Structure formats: C-alpha cells, structure tokens
Amino acid sequence: MKKIISLFYRNLFLTNRLFAALTCSVVLFLLSFFFPWLGIIPTLAFWVLIILFLMDVLLLYRTANGVFAKRHAPERLSNSDNNDLGVYIENWYSFPISVGIIDEIPFQFQKRDIWFKTNLKPREKKLINYVLRPTRRGEYEFGDIRVYAKSPLGFIRRRYNFEQAETLPVYPSFLQMRKYELMAISNRLTDIGIKKIRRIGHSMEFEQVKNYVQGDDYRTINWKATARQGNLMVNSYTDEKSQHVYCIIDKSRAMKMPFEGLSLLDYAINASLVLSNVALLKEDKAGLITISEKLGVVIPAERRPAHLNKILEALYKEKTRYLETNMELLFAIVRKVIKQRSLVVFFTNYESLNALHRQLPFLKRIAKYHLLLVVFFENTELKKLSEQPAADVEGIYIKTIAEKFAYDKKLIVKELAKHGIQSILSTPQNLTINTINRYLEIKAKQKI
C-alpha cells in the first residue's frame, strides 16, 4: 500500500493551470473582506476547484496503463551524420490527452531539451521523429522514456516511465559510405562533387563493342563492326582490376585536432571507409593499416564479400594516441605486408616543414616501391584568420603568423612533389571527395 501511495505522489505533477485557479480563489477570498456582497462565491469557487481537481485525478488514474511509448532506433548510429530516431506513442484513454515526452538521450550530446509535445485522440497512435548527430565513435547509452499525460481539464499531469535503457554503438560514417556506394554503382559520382576525369589513353582490357555516343574517343571506332551494323560502333575498354589500394591512417597526436566537433582522425577514418568501398566497387582490393608509436591494425588487401565489414569493425575501435608516428616501423610493415606495387594513401597531418622533414626519408623509401599519396589537412581556422582584415597591431601579428602557417602547407606540397610523392591538401569537410577524385584520376591515368 505504501509503495502504491509513493508511486502516486511521485508520478503526479501539478500544472500552471491549477496554480492559476488557486491564485484566483485566494484573490476572491481577499476581495470578500472588502466587498461583503460577494458572500459565499469564494467558497463555492474553491470547492468547485477541489471537485475538478479530484475529477482530473480520477480521469488519469482510473486506467492503470493509459499510455504506451517505445523508442524506435537503428541498431547502430553513423558518426558525423544525422541519424533518424523516433518515439512511438499510443493513447489508451477514452478521451483526448495532451502529452509531453522526454527521451533520455546519451550524455555525449549534452542536450537537456529533448522535450516533445503532442495531442492524441482516443486510441490514436503517433510516431514522433527526431535527429541526432554524434561526433565521436563508441558506445552511447540511452535511458528511459518519460511521458507526461494531461487530460482536457489540465490541472495535473501523470508521468509514465518506460524502461528502455539500451546501448547503441556509433560506427564510422556508414551512411556517407552508402551514399557514395549508390553513386558509384550508377556512375553518378559527379552528382555529389566528384569531378569527371579526362582520360589520357585507355586501358587495354577490352570490355565490349557498343554503339557510338557523343564524347567517345574516335580512335576506338571498330570499323569492321561499323560496316556490319551500319552504325558507328566503338570498342569499350575497362579500367584495370584487382589493383591493391591501402589506406594508412596516422593515429598520433597530430590527428587529435578537432574541426566542427570531429577530430582529424575521424575525418580520415570516414574517408578511408568510403575509399575502400569505392575501390571494392571498382573491383580493386582494399587494405588498411593504422599506425602511431606502435602498430595498430593490419588488414591485407582483399575483395571478399565480408571484407568491408571487417574494415568497418577495425575502424570503429581506433583511437588517437599521443606520441609521434614510428615511421621506421611503418616502412617495415609496408615492406612486409604489401607484396606488389600498390596505391598507398597515407592520412596524416603536418603543421610545419620540420614535421615533414622528420618523416620524409621514410616516405621516399615507401614511394620507391609503391605509388604513395600523402593526404593532410588545411587548417581552416588559420585560413579564416589570414583572410580577416587586421584592426590593430596585435591583429597584424596574428594575421602574419596565420599566413606563414598557410604558406608552410603549400611548401609541404611542393616538397613532396619534388621527391615524386603525390599529395592532397584538403579541408576536413572536403577530404572524402578530394580523396576519391584523386583515386579515380590515378586509375584513369593507369599510374599504379
């Protein structure tokens, strides 16, 4: 009995409407001292309020379970993407109600305003959708769903607690991967910013004879087939297949820097996942290596159906470390694991020429055996500072230093090119698009 009474008081909440009615009743009692003609009106008003209050309690509590709610969530969330979630709610009362819903989302989002309001007719069902954008990989713990129901009288709210604690993993951006996957399958990568690569020459792997369309190379016209068909026919060639593409991700402290809530490591992980998927769709073999002061994950290049999921699971667990990259160890692993000439995409970050010079001897040795593509980041915050006009002497100093760092980035590109190493200097937001662009360009020019 005590437990029932305790639950009753714990889940009963008074509304502003009740306090407003009590305030009016008190005012009437005060006025009755100055205006005796009010008589018993204040007393009647008070008892009417008490009766309505008890009726409201009876309406909400005579049904044991007047409301049902459940969270609709995917099995896993995609990092840096908008993930759709929802709360399904159903009114089991015989009268319309107004409800407020609190979904206890993980603390990582730092949001305390997830409050939804809606009205439900008798026996009505609704699905309330909302969006969450995580910025860190890992496990996110959701709490209970709390529903506050209010009858048409509106003097109290009854709280319903639905225990639905669950833990959802946040994986690298698989939603972005699927978007690029659909574009790659339909050859529509240009629709989302992937530029069209102009071919210089073509692969010698014959695919088919097809009708000529505007834009086809005249040199590929098949005159014998043209004579037989009476229409221009051309030979179609396909890119070379089963080439090895390795993504090497630097996990050192240089990749800890945050941009728009995501670390550089997360940007590199998302780009690696998309690049691996596109490479597999192009019938190449994708591999992965992660490195810091010690070796992380090594996944040899393959094309098996479950290979992409193996890469996804490996990337999900990676974290930034705080020491510099052991480049000597990286070179030893590359020589041991990668047996044939491959495209090696090294995701890292350099803030100065000195940082590059410490690693350059090992980069040159890797480039001797493989086609090395170094991908590093443009500091967008420093770029903004360098473009802002200086208002005082301190502003001039800041602008000059920012321009120096931006110029160092360009010198790093030139230094790498001087040693025959390709590079991409990209903003974090455009990293995926720029990396896929360069991969498609390398395949089109048959550089591997």
UniProtKB/TrEMBL annotation:
Keywords: Membrane, Transmembrane, Transmembrane helix. InterPro entries: DUF58 (IPR002881), vWFA_dom_sf (IPR036465). It comes from the Bacteria. The chain crosses the membrane at residues 12-34, 40-61. Pfam families: DUF58. Residues 208-352 form the DUF58 domain. This is Uncharacterized protein (DUF58 family). It comes from Mucilaginibacter lappiensis.
